[in-house]
Amino acid sequence: MKKYFLLWSFALIGLCAKAQSSGDSLKFMAADSGIVQDKRVNELILKHVLINEAKKGKSKGYRVQIHFGPEKAKAQDVRSKFMTEYHDIAAYLDYQQPYFKIRVGDFRTKLEAYKLLQLISIDFPGAFIVSDDIEMPKLE
Question: Which of 36, 44, 94, 117 could bridge across to 101 with cysteines, CB 3.0–4.6 Å?
Answer without folding.
Answer: 94
